[in-house]
Specification:
CATH class of the largest domain: Alpha Beta
Mean pLDDT: 87
Number of domains: 2
Low-confidence stretches: none
Structural class: alpha+beta
CATH architecture of the largest domain: 3-Layer(bba) Sandwich
CATH superfamily of the largest domain: FAD/NAD(P)-binding domain
CATH topology of the largest domain: FAD/NAD(P)-binding domain
Shape: globular
Number of helices: 11
Protein backbone atom coordinates (compact mmCIF):
# COMPACT_ATOMS: atom_id res chain seq x y z
CA UNK A 1 0.00 0.00 0.00
CA UNK A 2 1.36 3.42 -1.03
CA UNK A 3 1.38 6.04 1.70
CA UNK A 4 2.48 9.68 1.76
CA UNK A 5 2.25 12.55 4.22
CA UNK A 6 0.85 16.01 3.45
CA UNK A 7 -0.03 19.09 5.41
CA UNK A 8 -3.49 19.31 3.80
CA UNK A 9 -5.62 16.72 1.99
CA UNK A 10 -8.61 18.01 0.02
CA UNK A 11 -11.42 15.73 -1.11
CA UNK A 12 -13.19 17.21 -4.13
CA UNK A 13 -11.42 18.89 -7.03
CA UNK A 14 -14.21 21.16 -8.26
CA UNK A 15 -14.03 24.95 -8.29
CA UNK A 16 -13.94 25.33 -4.49
CA UNK A 17 -11.57 22.47 -3.71
CA UNK A 18 -9.16 23.27 -6.54
CA UNK A 19 -9.08 26.94 -5.51
CA UNK A 20 -8.10 26.06 -1.93
CA UNK A 21 -5.44 23.71 -3.30
CA UNK A 22 -3.98 26.48 -5.49
CA UNK A 23 -4.03 29.09 -2.72
CA UNK A 24 -2.18 26.78 -0.33
CA UNK A 25 0.20 24.98 -2.69
CA UNK A 26 1.53 28.16 -4.28
CA UNK A 27 2.62 29.25 -0.79
CA UNK A 28 4.51 26.00 -0.23
CA UNK A 29 1.91 24.05 1.77
CA UNK A 30 2.03 20.38 0.75
CA UNK A 31 -1.39 19.43 -0.63
CA UNK A 32 -3.07 16.24 -1.83
CA UNK A 33 -6.11 16.94 -4.03
CA UNK A 34 -8.41 13.96 -4.55
CA UNK A 35 -11.22 13.81 -7.11
CA UNK A 36 -13.47 10.95 -8.17
CA UNK A 37 -13.41 12.17 -11.79
CA UNK A 38 -10.79 13.55 -14.13
CA UNK A 39 -11.22 17.33 -14.24
CA UNK A 40 -8.20 17.66 -16.55
CA UNK A 41 -9.80 15.56 -19.30
CA UNK A 42 -10.28 17.07 -22.75
CA UNK A 43 -13.76 17.58 -24.17
CA UNK A 44 -15.13 17.60 -27.73
CA UNK A 45 -14.94 20.89 -29.61
CA UNK A 46 -18.21 22.77 -30.05
CA UNK A 47 -19.60 21.17 -26.90
CA UNK A 48 -20.79 23.09 -23.85
CA UNK A 49 -21.06 22.36 -20.15
CA UNK A 50 -24.61 22.69 -18.82
CA UNK A 51 -23.12 23.68 -15.46
CA UNK A 52 -22.13 27.35 -15.56
CA UNK A 53 -21.34 29.91 -12.87
CA UNK A 54 -21.97 33.65 -12.82
CA UNK A 55 -18.72 34.75 -11.19
CA UNK A 56 -18.59 38.09 -9.38
CA UNK A 57 -15.71 40.54 -9.78
CA UNK A 58 -14.52 39.44 -6.34
CA UNK A 59 -14.30 35.83 -7.54
CA UNK A 60 -12.58 36.90 -10.76
CA UNK A 61 -10.00 38.76 -8.68
CA UNK A 62 -9.22 35.53 -6.80
CA UNK A 63 -8.50 33.81 -10.11
CA UNK A 64 -6.42 36.75 -11.28
CA UNK A 65 -4.34 36.57 -8.09
CA UNK A 66 -3.68 32.89 -8.84
CA UNK A 67 -2.68 33.66 -12.42
CA UNK A 68 -5.40 31.46 -13.96
CA UNK A 69 -7.82 34.10 -15.23
CA UNK A 70 -6.01 34.56 -18.57
CA UNK A 71 -6.34 30.80 -19.13
CA UNK A 72 -10.08 30.99 -18.34
CA UNK A 73 -10.48 33.87 -20.80
CA UNK A 74 -8.64 31.90 -23.47
CA UNK A 75 -10.77 28.81 -22.89
CA UNK A 76 -13.95 30.91 -23.04
CA UNK A 77 -15.60 33.38 -20.64
CA UNK A 78 -18.38 35.84 -21.21
CA UNK A 79 -18.46 39.24 -19.43
CA UNK A 80 -21.69 40.43 -17.83
CA UNK A 81 -22.01 44.18 -18.27
CA UNK A 82 -25.73 44.63 -17.68
CA UNK A 83 -28.63 43.02 -15.87
CA UNK A 84 -32.30 43.26 -16.77
CA UNK A 85 -34.95 41.86 -14.43
CA UNK A 86 -38.70 41.98 -14.93
CA UNK A 87 -41.81 40.55 -13.32
CA UNK A 88 -44.59 38.60 -14.99
CA UNK A 89 -47.07 40.69 -12.99
CA UNK A 90 -47.50 44.39 -13.75
CA UNK A 91 -44.78 46.59 -15.19
CA UNK A 92 -42.07 46.08 -12.57
CA UNK A 93 -38.60 46.03 -14.11
CA UNK A 94 -35.03 46.74 -13.10
CA UNK A 95 -32.19 47.61 -15.49
CA UNK A 96 -28.64 47.81 -14.13
CA UNK A 97 -25.49 48.80 -16.05
CA UNK A 98 -22.03 48.25 -14.55
CA UNK A 99 -20.78 51.38 -16.35
CA UNK A 100 -23.03 53.48 -14.11
CA UNK A 101 -21.14 52.05 -11.11
CA UNK A 102 -17.80 52.89 -12.71
CA UNK A 103 -16.91 49.31 -13.71
CA UNK A 104 -16.46 47.70 -17.12
CA UNK A 105 -18.34 44.58 -16.01
CA UNK A 106 -20.12 43.19 -12.97
CA UNK A 107 -18.90 39.65 -13.48
CA UNK A 108 -18.61 36.86 -16.02
CA UNK A 109 -20.34 33.63 -16.96
CA UNK A 110 -18.01 30.65 -17.27
CA UNK A 111 -18.70 26.97 -17.79
CA UNK A 112 -17.64 25.11 -14.65
CA UNK A 113 -15.42 22.70 -16.59
CA UNK A 114 -13.41 25.64 -17.96
CA UNK A 115 -12.78 27.12 -14.51
CA UNK A 116 -11.81 23.73 -13.09
CA UNK A 117 -9.49 22.91 -16.00
CA UNK A 118 -7.65 26.22 -15.62
CA UNK A 119 -7.17 25.56 -11.89
CA UNK A 120 -5.94 22.01 -12.49
CA UNK A 121 -3.45 23.22 -15.09
CA UNK A 122 -2.09 25.58 -12.42
CA UNK A 123 -1.93 22.78 -9.84
CA UNK A 124 0.08 20.53 -12.15
CA UNK A 125 2.77 23.24 -12.22
CA UNK A 126 2.97 23.47 -8.42
CA UNK A 127 5.53 21.15 -6.85
CA UNK A 128 3.74 21.27 -3.49
CA UNK A 129 0.56 19.65 -4.85
CA UNK A 130 -0.13 16.04 -5.84
CA UNK A 131 -3.40 15.34 -7.66
CA UNK A 132 -5.23 12.02 -7.42
CA UNK A 133 -7.64 11.62 -10.35
CA UNK A 134 -10.34 8.96 -10.61
CA UNK A 135 -9.83 8.28 -6.92
CA UNK A 136 -12.49 8.03 -4.22
CA UNK A 137 -12.46 8.56 -0.47
CA UNK A 138 -13.16 5.30 1.34
CA UNK A 139 -12.73 6.28 5.00
CA UNK A 140 -10.66 8.40 7.38
CA UNK A 141 -9.60 8.46 11.01
CA UNK A 142 -8.53 11.50 12.99
CA UNK A 143 -6.45 11.78 16.14
CA UNK A 144 -4.51 14.47 17.97
CA UNK A 145 -1.57 14.17 15.56
CA UNK A 146 -3.24 13.97 12.16
CA UNK A 147 -5.68 12.29 9.78
CA UNK A 148 -5.24 8.88 8.17
CA UNK A 149 -7.17 8.81 4.88
CA UNK A 150 -7.99 5.61 3.03
CA UNK A 151 -8.52 6.09 -0.72
CA UNK A 152 -9.48 3.73 -3.53
CA UNK A 153 -6.74 2.03 -5.58
CA UNK A 154 -5.25 0.71 -2.32
CA UNK A 155 -3.86 4.17 -1.53
CA UNK A 156 -3.50 5.84 1.86
CA UNK A 157 -2.41 9.40 2.66
CA UNK A 158 -1.80 11.10 5.97
CA UNK A 159 -2.39 14.81 6.57
CA UNK A 160 -2.51 17.37 9.33
CA UNK A 161 -5.82 18.71 7.98
CA UNK A 162 -8.63 17.12 5.94
CA UNK A 163 -10.79 19.48 3.84
CA UNK A 164 -14.22 18.33 2.63
CA UNK A 165 -14.99 20.04 -0.69
CA UNK A 166 -17.02 17.08 -1.91
CA UNK A 167 -20.34 18.74 -2.65
CA UNK A 168 -23.87 18.72 -1.28
CA UNK A 169 -23.83 14.95 -0.71
CA UNK A 170 -20.48 15.20 1.09
CA UNK A 171 -19.21 11.80 2.17
CA UNK A 172 -16.90 13.48 4.68
CA UNK A 173 -19.86 15.24 6.30
CA UNK A 174 -21.77 11.98 6.47
CA UNK A 175 -18.86 9.99 7.90
CA UNK A 176 -18.34 12.74 10.49
CA UNK A 177 -21.96 12.57 11.64
CA UNK A 178 -22.44 16.31 11.14
CA UNK A 179 -26.15 17.16 11.03
CA UNK A 180 -27.47 18.83 7.89
CA UNK A 181 -30.66 20.94 7.89
CA UNK A 182 -32.91 22.44 5.26
CA UNK A 183 -35.88 21.78 3.04
CA UNK A 184 -36.78 20.99 -0.53
CA UNK A 185 -38.34 23.76 -2.62
CA UNK A 186 -40.38 21.15 -4.54
CA UNK A 187 -38.88 22.65 -7.68
CA UNK A 188 -36.42 21.70 -10.38
CA UNK A 189 -34.12 23.95 -12.41
CA UNK A 190 -33.96 23.14 -16.10
CA UNK A 191 -30.63 23.99 -17.75
CA UNK A 192 -29.67 24.14 -21.42
CA UNK A 193 -27.54 26.04 -23.92
CA UNK A 194 -29.47 28.15 -26.45
CA UNK A 195 -28.61 30.04 -29.63
CA UNK A 196 -30.64 33.29 -29.67
CA UNK A 197 -31.78 35.15 -32.77
CA UNK A 198 -30.79 38.51 -31.22
CA UNK A 199 -27.48 39.50 -29.61
CA UNK A 200 -27.45 38.91 -25.86
CA UNK A 201 -25.76 42.34 -25.40
CA UNK A 202 -23.54 41.03 -22.58
CA UNK A 203 -26.70 41.15 -20.45
CA UNK A 204 -28.03 38.75 -17.83
CA UNK A 205 -31.80 38.57 -18.30
CA UNK A 206 -34.16 37.28 -15.62
CA UNK A 207 -37.93 37.14 -15.59
CA UNK A 208 -39.87 36.17 -12.47
CA UNK A 209 -42.67 33.80 -13.45
CA UNK A 210 -45.45 32.37 -11.25
CA UNK A 211 -43.60 29.07 -10.65
CA UNK A 212 -40.08 30.47 -10.47
CA UNK A 213 -37.48 32.62 -12.25
CA UNK A 214 -36.22 32.17 -15.80
CA UNK A 215 -32.59 33.31 -16.17
CA UNK A 216 -30.93 33.79 -19.54
CA UNK A 217 -27.21 34.24 -18.99
CA UNK A 218 -24.86 35.44 -21.73
CA UNK A 219 -22.37 32.78 -22.77
CA UNK A 220 -19.34 32.56 -25.07
CA UNK A 221 -19.84 32.36 -28.83
CA UNK A 222 -22.98 34.50 -28.66
CA UNK A 223 -24.98 31.77 -26.93
CA UNK A 224 -27.00 31.89 -23.72
CA UNK A 225 -27.27 29.52 -20.78
CA UNK A 226 -30.76 29.17 -19.35
CA UNK A 227 -31.75 28.26 -15.80
CA UNK A 228 -35.53 27.84 -15.73
CA UNK A 229 -37.04 27.12 -12.32
CA UNK A 230 -40.49 25.55 -12.12
CA UNK A 231 -42.39 22.94 -10.18
CA UNK A 232 -41.14 19.38 -10.55
CA UNK A 233 -44.15 18.46 -12.67
CA UNK A 234 -43.80 21.44 -15.01
CA UNK A 235 -40.07 20.87 -15.47
CA UNK A 236 -40.61 17.21 -16.27
CA UNK A 237 -43.15 18.32 -18.85
CA UNK A 238 -40.63 20.70 -20.46
CA UNK A 239 -38.06 17.91 -20.61
CA UNK A 240 -40.54 15.68 -22.43
CA UNK A 241 -41.27 18.24 -25.18
CA UNK A 242 -39.67 18.10 -28.61
CA UNK A 243 -36.84 20.59 -29.19
CA UNK A 244 -39.05 22.86 -31.30
CA UNK A 245 -41.97 22.81 -28.85
CA UNK A 246 -39.63 23.48 -25.93
CA UNK A 247 -38.07 26.47 -27.71
CA UNK A 248 -41.54 27.80 -28.47
CA UNK A 249 -42.40 27.66 -24.75
CA UNK A 250 -39.10 29.34 -23.91
CA UNK A 251 -39.66 32.17 -26.37
CA UNK A 252 -43.07 32.83 -24.83
CA UNK A 253 -41.71 32.70 -21.26
CA UNK A 254 -38.93 35.17 -22.14
CA UNK A 255 -41.38 37.45 -23.96
CA UNK A 256 -39.19 37.27 -27.08
CA UNK A 257 -36.48 39.41 -25.47
CA UNK A 258 -33.87 37.57 -27.56
CA UNK A 259 -36.08 36.65 -30.49
CA UNK A 260 -36.33 33.09 -31.78
CA UNK A 261 -34.35 30.51 -29.81
CA UNK A 262 -32.59 27.34 -30.95
CA UNK A 263 -31.51 24.51 -28.65
CA UNK A 264 -27.84 23.57 -29.14
CA UNK A 265 -27.40 21.18 -26.21
CA UNK A 266 -29.19 18.49 -24.28
CA UNK A 267 -31.60 19.58 -21.56
CA UNK A 268 -30.88 18.73 -17.95
CA UNK A 269 -32.58 19.38 -14.62
CA UNK A 270 -31.73 19.21 -10.95
CA UNK A 271 -33.85 19.46 -7.78
CA UNK A 272 -33.65 22.63 -5.67
CA UNK A 273 -33.25 22.73 -1.93
CA UNK A 274 -31.87 24.92 0.84
CA UNK A 275 -29.40 23.01 2.98
CA UNK A 276 -26.93 24.04 5.64
CA UNK A 277 -24.76 22.57 8.37
CA UNK A 278 -24.58 24.10 11.82
CA UNK A 279 -21.09 22.68 12.30
CA UNK A 280 -18.26 23.55 9.91
CA UNK A 281 -15.40 21.62 11.52
CA UNK A 282 -14.38 18.79 13.81
CA UNK A 283 -11.02 17.48 14.97
CA UNK A 284 -8.58 18.12 12.08
CA UNK A 285 -11.45 18.25 9.57
CA UNK A 286 -13.25 21.18 7.94
CA UNK A 287 -16.02 21.55 5.33
CA UNK A 288 -16.31 24.17 2.58
CA UNK A 289 -18.63 25.07 -0.28
CA UNK A 290 -21.71 22.97 -1.07
CA UNK A 291 -20.68 20.48 1.63
CA UNK A 292 -22.03 23.01 4.16
CA UNK A 293 -24.48 25.16 2.20
CA UNK A 294 -26.66 25.03 -0.89
CA UNK A 295 -28.97 27.89 -1.85
CA UNK A 296 -31.61 28.73 -4.44
CA UNK A 297 -29.93 29.56 -7.77
CA UNK A 298 -32.03 32.65 -8.55
CA UNK A 299 -29.04 35.00 -8.05
CA UNK A 300 -26.32 32.56 -9.05
CA UNK A 301 -24.36 32.98 -5.81
CA UNK A 302 -23.55 29.34 -4.97
CA UNK A 303 -20.10 29.22 -6.56
CA UNK A 304 -19.19 32.66 -5.22
CA UNK A 305 -20.06 31.62 -1.66
CA UNK A 306 -17.85 28.57 -2.05
CA UNK A 307 -14.97 30.70 -3.30
CA UNK A 308 -15.31 32.95 -0.25
CA UNK A 309 -15.08 29.84 1.92
CA UNK A 310 -11.96 28.80 0.02
CA UNK A 311 -10.16 32.13 0.38
CA UNK A 312 -10.96 32.51 4.10
CA UNK A 313 -9.89 28.94 4.90
CA UNK A 314 -6.63 29.38 2.97
CA UNK A 315 -6.00 32.66 4.76
CA UNK A 316 -6.38 31.27 8.30
CA UNK A 317 -4.31 28.18 7.46
CA UNK A 318 -1.49 30.23 5.94
CA UNK A 319 -1.44 32.63 8.87
CA UNK A 320 -1.16 29.70 11.28
CA UNK A 321 1.60 28.18 9.14
CA UNK A 322 3.58 31.44 9.09
CA UNK A 323 3.21 31.73 12.86
CA UNK A 324 4.43 28.11 13.20
CA UNK A 325 1.17 27.03 14.83
CA UNK A 326 -0.80 23.85 14.18
CA UNK A 327 -2.73 24.58 10.96
CA UNK A 328 -5.52 22.18 12.01
CA UNK A 329 -5.96 23.33 15.60
CA UNK A 330 -9.47 23.98 16.87
CA UNK A 331 -8.62 27.67 17.24
CA UNK A 332 -7.65 27.98 13.55
CA UNK A 333 -10.67 26.06 12.23
CA UNK A 334 -13.11 27.92 14.50
CA UNK A 335 -11.74 31.21 13.19
CA UNK A 336 -12.68 30.12 9.66
CA UNK A 337 -16.14 29.02 10.86
CA UNK A 338 -16.81 32.34 12.62
CA UNK A 339 -15.80 34.35 9.57
CA UNK A 340 -17.94 32.38 7.13
CA UNK A 341 -21.04 31.17 8.98
CA UNK A 342 -22.69 34.58 9.37
CA UNK A 343 -22.15 35.57 5.73
CA UNK A 344 -23.37 32.19 4.45
CA UNK A 345 -26.51 32.25 6.61
CA UNK A 346 -27.27 35.83 5.55
CA UNK A 347 -27.00 34.97 1.86
CA UNK A 348 -29.14 31.85 2.31
CA UNK A 349 -31.76 33.90 4.12
CA UNK A 350 -31.81 36.60 1.43
CA UNK A 351 -32.12 34.08 -1.41
CA UNK A 352 -34.85 32.17 0.41
CA UNK A 353 -36.68 35.44 1.06
CA UNK A 354 -36.46 36.51 -2.58
CA UNK A 355 -37.69 33.10 -3.69
CA UNK A 356 -40.74 33.37 -1.43
CA UNK A 357 -41.39 37.01 -2.35
CA UNK A 358 -41.48 36.35 -6.08
CA UNK A 359 -43.44 33.12 -5.66
CA UNK A 360 -46.18 34.84 -3.65
CA UNK A 361 -49.50 34.89 -5.46
CA UNK A 362 -51.43 37.37 -3.31
CA UNK A 363 -52.44 40.44 -5.30
CA UNK A 364 -51.21 42.96 -2.72
CA UNK A 365 -47.77 41.32 -2.52
CA UNK A 366 -47.51 41.17 -6.31
CA UNK A 367 -48.48 44.83 -6.60
CA UNK A 368 -45.99 45.88 -3.90
CA UNK A 369 -43.26 43.76 -5.53
CA UNK A 370 -43.83 45.25 -8.96
CA UNK A 371 -44.04 48.81 -7.64
CA UNK A 372 -40.90 48.31 -5.57
CA UNK A 373 -38.91 47.23 -8.62
CA UNK A 374 -40.10 50.32 -10.44
CA UNK A 375 -39.06 52.64 -7.60
CA UNK A 376 -35.61 51.02 -7.35
CA UNK A 377 -35.19 51.37 -11.11
CA UNK A 378 -35.64 55.14 -10.75
CA UNK A 379 -32.92 55.46 -8.11
CA UNK A 380 -29.34 55.60 -9.41
CA UNK A 381 -28.02 55.23 -5.85
CA UNK A 382 -29.96 52.05 -5.10
CA UNK A 383 -29.12 50.55 -8.49
CA UNK A 384 -25.42 51.24 -7.95
CA UNK A 385 -25.61 49.51 -4.56
CA UNK A 386 -27.28 46.48 -6.15
CA UNK A 387 -24.63 46.49 -8.87
CA UNK A 388 -21.80 46.54 -6.32
CA UNK A 389 -23.50 43.74 -4.40
CA UNK A 390 -23.70 41.70 -7.63
CA UNK A 391 -19.99 42.34 -8.17
CA UNK A 392 -19.21 41.00 -4.73
CA UNK A 393 -17.40 44.18 -3.67
Amino acid sequence: MSEKKYQVAIIGGGITGATVACLLAEKGISVALVDAGDPSAEWPQESYDLRVSALTLASINVFKSLGVWDEIVQLGEQPIEKMYVWDHFGSGELAIDSAEAGEMQMGAVVENRITVLALWKKLQLLKSCDVFKLTQLMSFETNEDGVSIQLSKNTQVNAQLLVGADGSNSKIRQLSGIEHYGWSYQQKALVAIIKPEKLHQNTAWQRFLPEGPLALLPLRDGLISIVWTSSVETTEGYLALSDSDFCRELVEASEQQLGKLELVSQRGAFPLALQFSSQYCQQRMVLIGDAIHTIHPLAGQGANLGLKDATVLADVVLKAHIAKRDIASEQVLRRYERQRKGDNLLMMGIMDGFKRLFAADQSLIKLTRSSGMGLINQSALLKNQICKYAMGV
